[in-house]
Design a protein that fits this description.
eight-stranded antiparallel beta sheet; 12 strands; elongated
Length: about 220
């Protein structure tokens, strides 16, 4: 198994899972970027707050615009069938949120992500980028509960270079992903002291088109 894995790393074939990792990091950036639902108590009743969301400003009656940007880095360790790699990603998002009463809001967002996955030992890299759109619903309930449902779609483009046997194989392809998340919490306490259970469930479905490499002769995929 060790010799087989070394051969896979030498030819670079085991770098292919990085396509999925780039898309996954993009999706996580987006789900984190829209923030979380937060409930607050005012005059004995629970209302939905803007505190859990990104930086926002009022643009109309119970309507807010928001902007969110960020970056993150993730490390994927070597496994039996895959070389290790690092993923660096960035995103920028603009959106709007409309409050429907005191306990419900709906929102839309769109933006752009880009990132790079670098294989260990300089075996290659995958550059990914793409625009995304999505929407969400937030609600407050009970005496301190809040929940959020989000769904989105992202179109993706990839450029890959793979160092193999003294040559560099290159390819470009497209892909897309659908992602969604459910977040919920039930907080107790008042003012700045809040405690209670939280939970989340995230879903990512990624598809990458086939491709043909050039530049490495018989070692092209």
């Amino acid at each position: 198994p060790v010799a087989r894995n070394d051969m896979l790393e030498t030819t670079g074939y085991s770098f292919l899972p990085a396509f999925g990792a780039v898309g996954f990091e993009f999706g996580q950036n987006i789900t984190k970027g829209i923030g979380r639902p937060v409930a607050q108590t005012q005059n004995g009743s629970v209302t939905l707050s803007t505190m859990g969301g990104p930086t926002s400003w009022k643009i109309g009656n119970d309507t807010y615009a928001f902007v969110s940007a960020g970056a993150q880095k993730a490390n994927y360790d070597r496994t039996t069938n895959a070389i290790g790699y690092d993923v660096k990603s960035h995103y920028m998002m603009l959106g709007g949120e409309k409050f429907v009463g005191n306990q419900v809001s709906v929102g839309l967002f769109g933006g752009y992500s880009d990132g790079t996955s670098d294989a260990d030992q300089s075996r290659g890299s995958i550059d990914g980028s793409g625009g995304f759109v999505g929407g969400f619903v937030r609600t407050a309930f009970g005496n301190g509960g809040a929940a959020q449902f989000m769904i989105g779609y992202q179109d993706l483009s990839y450029d890959m270079s793979r160092n193999v046997m003294g040559s560099t194989a290159r390819a470009s392809t497209d892909g897309h992903q659908v992602f969604g998340a459910i977040d919920a919490e039930y907080m107790f306490g008042q003012d700045r002291l809040r405690f209670g259970p939280t939970g989340s469930l995230e879903m990512y479905h990624l598809s990458v088109d086939g491709f043909d490499e050039t530049g490495a002769g018989a070692w092209n995929l």
